[in-house]
# Entry
Amino acid sequence: MPARTETLHGVFVEILNLGVLIEGPGGIGKSALALELVSRGHKLIADDAPEFHCCSSTTVSGVCPPPLQDFIAVSGLGVLNIPAMFGADAIKKSSRLRLMISLIPTDRFKLEGDEHLKGSLHQRTVLGIEIPAVKLPVAPGHNLAVMVENAIRNHILYAGGYNAAEEFISRQQSFLRGDR
# Structure
């Protein structure tokens, strides 16, 4: 059976040992965000066109196409060689896709129902496999690198069974009932 592959537009990075695809419309700052994340010690896998492979019935792995390896194109800076600037440890050859983050301009960012408390965690399908996904607004004053790192920390906690929103709601309900 031939391997199934899919190329997605975005930047694939490894943050806190999780493969994360950062997506969004052209010009929103995906590559600049990835550069900031690399400067904070995370690893670049692929800029612009990561290629994803179905490894099993539950696993998708991403790599960088050979012509793009080691490079990132950042608006205003041009093409940068990441290992030449940050060392070989700033690059990783592949990673399992564990989370997708969509950068959304604030004028198009909408939260539905209880997403104001629970966040925008939902599922996306890549090669027939469900991948957790989060939407983040891009607005002046937002430090996207901090938001992305903390979206990943929250995802790790959630995957481990902890849900901060549920705990918050439970505490509020207890308080309103007079349980102190």
